[in-house]
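Figure 3 (text version): structure tokens given as input.
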């Protein structure tokens, strides 16, 4: 029997609240720079918000030294279930600052960072995980993962592309090799757009779970088996956004993604031009109907 954890990465509290209603098992925060988080109260208040229903929650950090990561982990530990070290972000700003995917070439540092979190967070159940990309020479990736495992890493998420690759096919064979090389759980990431992809990726790789971001942006109900965003999910997003005071830009931006596959180009043009929450709600009611219509 397949036991697969469905994970959603890198969005703020309101959207995490939405995907949790549709079978998402674990949510991650966006990537937070650990040094800034420790230095600035403003950064802590703006980058990390949660509530009692937002669990299990993994806080994703960018860091390039072990003590900063451990200190940040200790700060968020009372409000979360684990931290994840981002070793996969390929953006130029992150790599030039020593964060993200450049860390896959520093296995000893990654090992040290994982060990520091393990040693300094006073909770044996608190997780310390990493998210990586793969090397062209997969032996380097296996070495990195085995070093992280020796330091006590809780699980490893593998985005099956190299640092240079963006939209090329995911290397599922590489993910399988990594899965076969370590005993800790391995999570696959990359090009998961439908629930059926979860089963096929599991069969290809034997992984313990999958992580999605863009697929859930387009359809937050994907893990519940919906091919496209259902109307109920759209209205759930409206309710959550109003309740939590989500800024209009964020509220509107997520709806643009959700409606892309279920609306025509003229409809999208009109919707994208809307500039207030009330205008969006009126448009949704007039175009798709209300939640009450679902029950009649």
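Below: residues designed for each position.
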């Amino acid at each position: 029997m397949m036991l697969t954890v469905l994970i959603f990465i890198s969005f703020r509290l309101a959207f995490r609240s939405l995907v949790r209603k549709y079978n998402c098992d674990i949510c991650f925060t966006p990537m937070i720079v650990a040094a800034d988080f420790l230095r600035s109260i403003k950064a802590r208040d703006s980058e990390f918000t949660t509530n009692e229903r937002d669990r299990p929650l993994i806080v994703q950090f960018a860091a390039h030294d072990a003590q900063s990561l451990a200190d940040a982990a200790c700060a968020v530990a009372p409000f979360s279930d684990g931290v994840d070290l981002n070793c996969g972000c390929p953006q130029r700003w992150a790599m030039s600052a020593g964060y993200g995917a450049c860390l896959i070439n520093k296995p000893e540092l990654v090992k040290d960072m994982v060990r520091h979190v393990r040693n300094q967070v006073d909770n044996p159940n608190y997780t310390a995980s990493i998210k990586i990309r793969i090397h062209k020479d997969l032996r380097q990736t296996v070495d990195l993962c085995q070093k992280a495992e020796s330091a006590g890493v809780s699980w490893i998420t593998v985005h099956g592309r190299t640092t240079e690759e963006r939209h090329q096919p995911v290397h599922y064979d590489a993910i399988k090799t990594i899965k076969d090389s370590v005993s800790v759980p391995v999570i696959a990431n990359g090009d998961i757009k439908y629930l059926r992809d979860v089963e096929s990726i599991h069969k290809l790789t034997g992984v313990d779970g999958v992580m999605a971001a863009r697929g859930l942006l387009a359809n937050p109900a994907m893990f519940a088996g919906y091919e496209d965003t259902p109307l109920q999910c759209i209205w759930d997003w409206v309710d959550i956004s109003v309740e939590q005071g989500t800024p209009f830009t964020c509220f509107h931006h997520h709806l643009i993604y959700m409606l892309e596959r279920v609306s025509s180009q003229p409809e999208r043009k009109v919707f994208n031009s809307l500039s207030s929450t009330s205008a969006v709600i009126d448009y949704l009611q007039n175009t798709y109907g209300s939640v009450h219509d679902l029950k009649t």
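The chain has a mean pLDDT of 94.
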